[in-house]
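pinned: reference chain
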Amino acid sequence: MDALSRRIHILGYGNVGKLIAHSLAGIPNRPPITFLLQHQGIVNQWYKEGKSIGIVQHGTAERSSGFDVELTSSHVRDRLSYMETQSTIHSLIISVKAPATVEALSTIAHRLGRESTLLFVNDGMGILDELNQKIFTDPETRPGYMIGVSTHGLRTLSAFSSALYGIGTIGLGLMEQQGFGILEQPLPTLSPSARYLLRTMTRTPSLAAMGLTAIDLYQLQLEKLVSRAVVDTLAVMFDCRNGGLLDNFAVTRVMRLLLSELSIVIRSLPELQGTPNVDLRFSPLKLEYQIVSLVKATASHESSMLHEVKRGRMTEIDYTTGYILRRGNDLGVKCVMNYMLTQMIKGKQNIESRKIEGNLPFNESKLPLISN
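pinned: its structure tokens
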């Protein structure tokens, strides 16, 4: 492949994207890597942090450099090192939050085509359907999709630094243009960019990346989605760190009500019918054990959803619990507990946003009287 097609672009600066960039920078014959950033403020932060990525593990910080940066908006780019902005992007890793994905990709959609491969490492489900409806509407010119599900334990330290507190894996799978595909097709049939991106990820030891069949990848996505749908939402409603959800019978009862609905929907999904051990893997008891293990491992952490709500920002609730609600409606399963919690999360986010913007209604009876 030529120098252009070897280049890997990373859209955004999420924790998994930073880990991937840092890891790829340490392999022999490393690929050229360009971060695509969306506004001048974060570019300034990039320079402030020494134009490098930091990963802290066991108290030891490692920094990697040699990355290019490109501003995707229409702002002045004269301080940046970037490829020609009209050039085709062949390998793109998406590391922005789910609600921002469509808007972020819309700024570079003209550089993506059928020869491009997009690797999504952000959390949430239902993003691809939204992209197909709003941006890549023509199946003939639509880029290829790849999903990455990471189990590495990561926590944000700064815009371009993360703490790695748990070693995991990254499961990779290709998505067909229509619906779910599998990664069992012979490697030579893959597009050049998909083959290159897959091989680059799997030859990077610290990522522990592996190719999976679509059905295995889908189950990994659902397990992670359930954890987010329960832990993140309850942490927001009780305004606590993850550990606050432990050893509290009232919280456990709420958790079990949520899990019973999530379990019914997942085990009823047509994609999973005939798959071995689905009823056991997604039983309420098994899911509860998975969530309690996660909460214990992240007891001192503040969930990303709580972090966003406190700042009045849009959360990923529509791509976690919202995905299950949509699939449940299609199946005729009403998830009333999860629906209620979703609306409460949105309501709380709206209240916090109003506070920040100074738009909360005020009580006129408290205003001082003004004499004529």
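why pinned: The first strand starts at residue 8 and ends at 11. The two ends are 80 Å apart (CA to CA).
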